[in-house]
Design a protein that fits this description.
It is built from 13 helices and 18 strands. By secondary structure, the protein is an alpha/beta fold. The chain is globular and about 70 Å long.
């Protein structure tokens, strides 16, 4: 395969070095990169049917969704009758009601929908936080199987919680362990899933701590998404959520702490010392009216990741929202750009813990990449890349997606999207809606 006439944005020593030229791919790897002058009036012509002509567009590493909820994909349009005026009621009347009626067929359809949405948004790596308490067994393998059909690499976990009783808590822990032991491979990895401090008893955290140590695991958990997580944790356990996780030695450099809105200085210090990463889910937080991150308080040593919380798969939009929130919180342009740049490389470093062959778009790298529908209106180089990225690239859709040399989408058309998949998504969504209305 050849990719010609492209701005290839390579990662070199925590910098982006864009070059204009052509790229050759063989057996899933980048085998040659040739640089040339940018002149749209003198572009190379396609060599054959396997040549993709970028026509001056920008090529980057693929997008990664660091906190997804694939199980939520069929929730669009549900008739929600309960009170939704605060976060605990949103959980009670929507998400905890929905996850309790999921079966494997619905989970499979949710994964299919998430795969199609992810590819459309240039996301070929997904870190998911799954919940189906009454259908735990084989739920993670079902998601993994469907994502791998679409060539999406993944890090999965099952949301362990005490809110449904001892048996279903145990089912959740068992599904995490079973997936790690039986299903994980080069394209599917594992974390230990936990819901949030306010639904996890001390005995469960102690058990989770033992599993983290024996399996060399990180945890994937909600942290202080809403103020209720703090108040209920203090009332029930006399500790803030971060104090509890720290006391049980649950955190390490593989751990993901989702949201992290209602944190204080002591919490931030504990996170910094643990090596864990915070993943921001900007659109979801605004939608749920739970608050905004305390950007000026966040220590520079804490890795920052970007997710969507299952609300959508558009990581680029969430990244742009992050930049705008940084500016709106009072950070200067320089500091806001520094934050985005740091986060970009934090994310690249984090994903390589699970997939060491994650690309930098250099010679001999794995051929994972996305072509944005963006032709720079002016020269693009290592010094001005981030201006192009924030105000140009992130505003444009994805034209082409390539994973290990395989074209997943080209010219906005997903390669293996067919009517049967969309029909299955519709039928399972209809069934979910009918069951939801009966609850």
């Amino acid at each position: 395969m050849q990719i010609i006439n492209a701005w290839i944005c390579q990662i070199i020593d925590n910098s982006i070095l864009p070059i204009f030229g052509n790229m050759k791919i063989q057996e899933g790897k980048i085998v040659s990169i040739s640089e040339k002058d940018f002149d749209l009036s003198k572009l190379d012509k396609p060599y054959n049917d396997e040549t993709i002509d970028a026509q001056g567009r920008v090529v980057t590493i693929p997008n990664v969704n660091y906190h997804d909820h694939i199980y939520s994909r069929l929730a669009k349009g549900l008739d929600i009758k309960g009170d939704m005026s605060n976060f605990p009621n949103i959980l009670k009347n929507l998400w905890w009601k929905l996850d309790s009626i999921l079966d494997l067929d619905m989970i499979r359809a949710s994964a299919q929908m998430a795969a199609l949405e992810s590819i459309s948004n240039g996301v070929t790596y997904v870190i998911d936080h799954h919940s189906s308490p009454k259908c735990a067994k084989n739920s993670l393998s079902t998601i993994s199987d469907e994502l791998k059909k679409f060539s999406i690499r993944n890090v999965l976990c099952f949301e362990t919680t005490d809110r449904n009783g001892e048996k279903l808590k145990k089912d959740g822990l068992d599904e995490n362990q079973s997936f790690l032991n039986s299903i994980t491979d080069n394209d599917s990895k594992s974390l230990l899933g936990l819901h949030a401090s306010f639904t996890l008893n001390n005995e469960t955290l102690e058990e989770a701590s033992k599993l983290v140590g024996s399996n060399n695991w990180g945890i994937h958990v909600h942290l202080c998404e809403d103020i209720s997580d703090v108040s209920i944790s203090k009332e029930k356990f006399n500790r803030r959520p971060m104090q509890r996780f720290s006391n049980f030695n649950l955190l390490n450099e593989k751990s993901i702490l989702a949201h992290g809105i209602h944190l204080n200085e002591e919490d931030f210090e504990l996170i910094k010392n643990s090596g864990a990463s915070l993943v921001f889910n900007i659109d979801s937080n605004m939608n749920n009216f739970v608050g905004l991150q305390k950007y000026k308080m966040i220590p520079a040593d804490i890795p920052i990741l970007v997710g969507t919380d299952g609300m959508h798969s558009n990581v680029a939009r969430s990244t742009k929202q992050l930049f705008l929130q940084l500016r709106n919180s009072g950070l200067s342009f320089d500091d806001s750009f520094k934050f985005i740049i740091k986060s970009y490389f934090d994310q690249h470093k984090f994903v390589k813990q699970f997939f060491p062959d994650f690309t930098t778009l250099n010679l001999n790298d794995r051929a994972d990449m996305i072509i944005w529908d963006y032709v720079p209106p002016a020269p693009i180089n290592d010094k001005n890349f981030w201006g192009h990225y924030v105000y140009g690239i992130l505003e444009r859709p994805i034209n082409t997606v390539i994973q290990k040399g395989k074209v997943l989408m080209n010219d906005f058309k997903i390669m293996n999207e067919d009517k049967s998949i969309n029909n299955n998504i519709y039928m399972q969504g209809k069934m979910l809606s009918e069951k939801f209305n009966k609850e």
